[in-house]
Amino acid sequence: MTEPDASAAPASLTDAPVEATSRPTVDTERRAFFFQFGRQAVSAVGQVAGMADAASRTASAMAGELLGLDEPGPGTQRGFTRAGPTTDPIVSVAAPAADDVFHSAYRVAGDELVLLDQRRIPEAVAEVVARRGSDVAYYLRLGVCRGGPLLAQVAAYGLALTAAERAAETAEIRANELRRTRQALVEARPSARLTSWALDRLDQAADRLPVSASGAEVAAALRAEADAIAGDLTAWQASIAVTLAAALPTPEERPLGVLLHGSQGALAGGQLGAGVAALAAVAAAGQDLRVYVTEGRPFMDGARLAAWELRQAGIEHRLVADSAVAWLLAREPVDAVLIAAEWSAVNGDVSALVGSRAVALLAHAADVPVIVHGPSAVTDPDTPDGDAIPEELRPARELSAYLRDVPVRVSDALVPAADIIPAMAVATVVTEHGATRAGAA
To answer: pLDDT digit string (tens) for 236-268?
Structure first.
């Protein structure tokens, strides 16, 4: 498979987008709800449940006003300064990152999409700016963002930004540019099912418009649908967190042992990550926890991202190499393994972060239940089994990017982004609709 070409930024990266529509009236109460939701939803089971219910009632109606405001982000709160344009335009930097400060994985500021650069964590909190869908696709290829729910949200906003930028063009030119941008966004991370799902929703929103719709009307419709997607995914992550918290066992004479594979907090979920939220809720309810985080290559999701998220949530944890999972399961009481799904087939096979197959099979052999979670949209009705899930190879340089002072011939590297967990190794699947056994409809 050909590696993605991320060697150069889009030529028009610093161009200003076209203003397509006027801004909605600011509702300060709704704005306050969203940012309270993002920061506090992980504090207790009851609070997560209450906010999940509130979000599910209001997500589609208010997400545009919540996400589309020029709300000060972490950079403003911590005194970051904006830098001038560069080839890879980092717009705010602080190092090292404070572990007790909430950082949203992205934010919408006017006609810009500001992305937290996950390549720099934890050494620095840095952000990059996207002004159109091609910018977003470029950053996705580079690995600035990870995690299906997050990728879906930023891809949707990217396509909406392109529609706004092209609002003054003819319908034919605009449609061609939207098709080209959509393809680039999907191909940037082909193993993420939610990206295609989100862009399909934007296509359907555009199809509902009359043929005579203006460019501004198309842009407004796509932006509204992107807002709704962000609201829905945030609400679903909260609902999944509630179900996950309830599904975890409650040992009476020892701490609950949980093994996490991959980032499962806001860095993967967008504004809220179900896995970390569930653990925080269990801890807040008084259950002692013993959390283990797998560390693997190529992106060091465990040591750099998952551990960082758990520290922010106040959850004590220990890092273990993914190659040592069999050793861990033989020596420590582990009650459940949590894995976030990227793509699910009809037969129950699941694609997740690379290394998940080995972790799941080892846990299954040790009679430790594997709980896979994600929005129901990760299941593709046109994917019969794991063999039909798209494969993605990341650039060879990712294998050596985080290995300090270790020479690696990157031209010799194979770097898969995900692998397949067979349905027989999965005990429970958790979606926004609740928990089911693996392979159940």
So the answer is: 999 999 999 999 999 988 999 999 999 999 999
Q: How far apart are CA 34 and CA 16, in angstroms?
A: 28
Report phi then psi at 166, rounded to 5. Answer: -100, 15
Q: How far is CA 134 from the centre of its chain?
A: 19
283, HSE (Cβ side, Cα atoms, 13 Å): 19
Quote the DSSP letter at residue 410: G
Structure tokens at 251: 């040992």
Pick the CATH number of 239-437 from 3.40.50.10470, 3.40.190.10, 1.10.1200.10, 3.30.70.260: 3.40.50.10470
- Cβ atoms of 361 and 285 within 8 Å: the answer is no
Q: Is the pLDDT of residue 154 over 90?
A: yes
Q: In whole angstroms, what is the distance from residue 61 CA to residue 74 CA?
A: 25
CB contact set of 36 (below 8 Å; sequence gap of 6+): none
- Both tokens of 100, joined, read 């007790």
d(CA 218, CA 213): 7
Residue 408 pLDDT grade (very low, low, confident, very high; cuts 50, 70, 90): low
**Which CATH code for domain 28-233?**
1.20.120.420
| Selection from 306, 356, 334, 344 nearest residue 436 by Cα | 344
Instruction: Give the residue, 365 or 57, on which the prediction is more confident.
Output: 365
Residue 375 and residue 274: Cα distance in Å, rounded? 10
**340, 374 in Cβ contact below 8 A?**
yes
pLDDT at position 414 = 66
In this prediction the pTM is: 0.79
Pairing of strands 418-421, 350-353: antiparallel
